[in-house]
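ATP synthase protein I
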Amino acid sequence: MNVAARTPIRAVVRIQCWIALIFFLLLMPKGWASALSGLLGAGIAIAGGLLYFVALRKINEGDFSSTAILYLLFVAELAKLAGIAAALVVVLFFFRQAEWFLVVGGCLAAYSAYWFGLLIKN
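Tokens:
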């Protein structure tokens, strides 16, 4: 069962990259610190999407039942969300010069690409 081929995760990551670029360009008039804070948050969301894509590839390599695939997809989604939350905490704790509102805003903006992914038809 080829789960990764039917999942539009590549398109979602591509949309996330475009959203990150647009968010960065919109924040440029506020200064480099603001723009880089937003880009850092978007990068965290993109890294989470790539983590999920790697998990899909690993699921593809195995021979699992449909119940096991559902369980593994659930675990992959939880790992993605936990990774995003941990990265946000690390960034906001260790990089004091980053503007937390823009870091979280950039992450949420890029993460919204999953909603656009629901609209993508194969």
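Residues 1 and 64 are 8 Å apart (CA to CA).
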